[in-house]
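Quick one - inputs below.
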Amino acid sequence: MTHHRHYANAPITEGLIDIRVELGPDITLESLDVVCRQASAEYPAREDRTLSEIAISPGAHGAPSTKQTKLGYLLRSADGKQVFQARLDGFTFSRLKPYENWTALRDEAQRLWAVYKEGVRPIRVTRVAVRYINQIEMPLPITDFKDYLRTVPEISPELPQGLSGFLMQLQIPQAEQDTVLVLTEALGPPSKPDTASVILDIDLFRERADYTSDEEVWGLLEAFRDRKNEAFESCITDKARQLFELVS
Amino acid sequence: MPSLALALAVGLRPSVAYTPGVEAVTWNSDEALQRVLESQEGSEYWRSRWLFDQAWTRLQELENLGPNWDSYGAAAPNDAARNTAERILALLSDLAVSPTRVVASSEGGVGICFVHGDRYADIECFNTGEIVAARYRGTGEPHVWQIAPEQDAMIAAIEQIRAHFSA
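Output:
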């Protein structure tokens, strides 16, 4: 069994579970409306979830054209800390800070997944993902990001080393077929004065269309949670762990 | 959509994935980009950050408006209005209540608007220093109230707006 480190001040700003599905041709936004009504007691605030597509034609003199397609709905808990998306392409459940623990995230996601499934009866699951977004606040001044992070942009020593912003994304295929770890790092807006903030976004997903049961899907999500933790621990130093106040 | 902006910003066009010491694995670049776009879907953090980035950018742009910007004699937002709007945007960010848009007010000031379905709310920061909020649903009667310029009052107004969209 994987030992999970616990931090008193974990930097998690969002934890989410995402399951993409293929739905039957008879499933429409009205079907999702029924799902939303079933969840409305705990998730009373509702917004449309749309996909915007921008078309830019080479050499065109006109402005780019934008097309918006309604994908489904986004529902929020009354305190705004939990977000449930019911869409025509899948389901997402997010917990925003303050993050509680994996068990609470998973259990609520499973409950809502059951509501979603009953309403839209997916033909198959096509993609599953666990994603954690961390906001790491480092006290200024910072001599080197490597004091806190082991996965960072490397600037040639012949260039100035100061950074006013960065955005880096790494797509790392995993040993298991069709599984990818996407690491996104970016300088973020600090939430406290005299700190620099780095966003460490760890997204682990697998695209497959042959899941045979819910047990297989949720078993995989549990495994992804372990793998996500390993990725997080491998990206930080002991100095960062001191910021998060390692408990066990 | 933030996902496209993010992908383009990092210039993602991978054609080959490398594992050191192992033969290269060919990856279709379009598929790689699609994976990036899909991986951006679903995150409330990135979605909210994009909305706030838009709001802050728009607030900065309002500095460039001149008098009669709407051709009906509206005054441009002044420093007082923009500073108040800044304070409120910062509180909205802390409280995780994302604005839909930031606009110049035809009555002279800055409007921070929230729109979801048939529910609407806004906070107007006037050039006079006054702050007024409004909320309504559909064709219903708007509820309008003044907000004192203190932080507690602003937070209370934001929570009222959150509750309006949760009702």
